[in-house]
Amino acid sequence: MQEAIILVGGKGTRLRPLTNHTPKPLLGVAGSSFIRHQIAKLMDAGVGHVVFATSYLASLFEEEFKDFSQDLKISYAVEEVPLGTGGAIRNAARLLHGTSPDAPVLILNGDILSGVDLPTLLERHEERAADVTLHLTRVPDPRAFGLVPTDGSGRVLSFLEKPKTPEECVTDQINAGCYVFRRSVLDAIPADREVSVEQETFPQLVAAGRRVYGHTTEEYWRDLGTPLAFVHGSADLVTGRATSSLVGPPSEALIHPTAVVDPTSRVTGGSTIGPHAVIGPHVVVDRSIIGAGVVVAEDARIHESVVDHDSSIGRASLLREVVVGCHAHIGADNELPAQLRLSCGIRIPAQGVRVSGTAAACPTVH
Ligand code: GTP
């Protein structure tokens, strides 16, 4: 039976405040929690047992899957203190059922949306009798990433820090956050301290001459760790740029059957509207995620933003690349600039924040 580990213990700090109460893999993406899309992909690849390596808000994973009745066994390896990506893998391996030292174990980061074909990745690993096979993806601008050059046979030559100069950009291949480990290699990761698989384990394996290979693909790939990547990943699933067996045919929007959307509104670009949300007249929602119970008043415009559950957006307010925490209230006629993050429960009065001037009379007596 093929087994897998999903790393889901990170705090997801770059997605705060969405991750203040919900771990990143449990955030809603294209109508389901992100981890459910990953589970569906693993099941399609024939995985029969998955271990969640949890730490931050660990109990919420068991809560999410308490009624899970499909043909997949789920185990939970809880870290009292986060062990880093390498330590987490080692700790989760305790719960794997297989005992063969050569068994291939699939490892997935819990925040990567990817079109990689997992059975092919496993096949390449077996063909090369590899110790570790990493999925590698190509990026147009490698400067923000550690690089993974390979030789003609796909063997990894080194793991390089983020390049600072054009000369240091020796490849456009980066670690795509999905691996196959030979079980014995996985068991050799130290168990008594925090370990980073990217910074310690992989470079040490290459330096020791172990068989570390890359499997480079051109398929869809996105790390959902930042707010903009998160909304884009969700929109890509809805519009069909990225695929998941949990999402229906490609469409402009995914509107929950209990949501109410005024017919004069436009919901586009792969936006999702959650359960019981209410979208008023002449509203524009583009490439955004609107959570459960959110109320958006008339003439508001929301672009590339996330509005978490039970918040409200006032009349004619404009949001662009904004993250609104849950139970927040944004009054009418606000104009919120890119990169703004609004804490859960915050209240912004009408015209409280604007990028451009307003013609409305000033309410203060001068
Ligand atoms: P940021 O805080 O925004 O960087 O997000 P993050 O905490 O998720 O960190 P990062 O994106 O670097 O983590 C990559 C993957 O590894 C994610 O799926 C995390 O959940 C997971 N991860 C990171 N650190 C740990 C850890 O100490 N334990 C476990 N179990 N998983 C981890």
UniProtKB/TrEMBL annotation:
The lineage of its organism: Bacteria, Bacillati, Actinomycetota, Actinomycetes, Kitasatosporales. This is Mannose-1-phosphate guanylyltransferase. Pfam families: GMPPB_C, NTP_transferase. The keyword Nucleotidyltransferase applies. One of its GO terms (molecular function) is mannose-1-phosphate guanylyltransferase (GTP) activity. It is an enzyme of class 2 (transferase). InterPro entries: GMPPB_C (IPR056729), Mannose-1P_guanyltransferase (IPR050486), NTP_transferase_dom (IPR005835), Nucleotide-diphossugar_trans (IPR029044). It comes from the Bacteria. PANTHER family: SUGAR-1-PHOSPHATE GUANYL TRANSFERASE. Keywords: Nucleotidyltransferase, Transferase. Residues 252-330 form the Mannose-1-phosphate guanyltransferase C-terminal domain. Its EC number is 2.7.7.13.
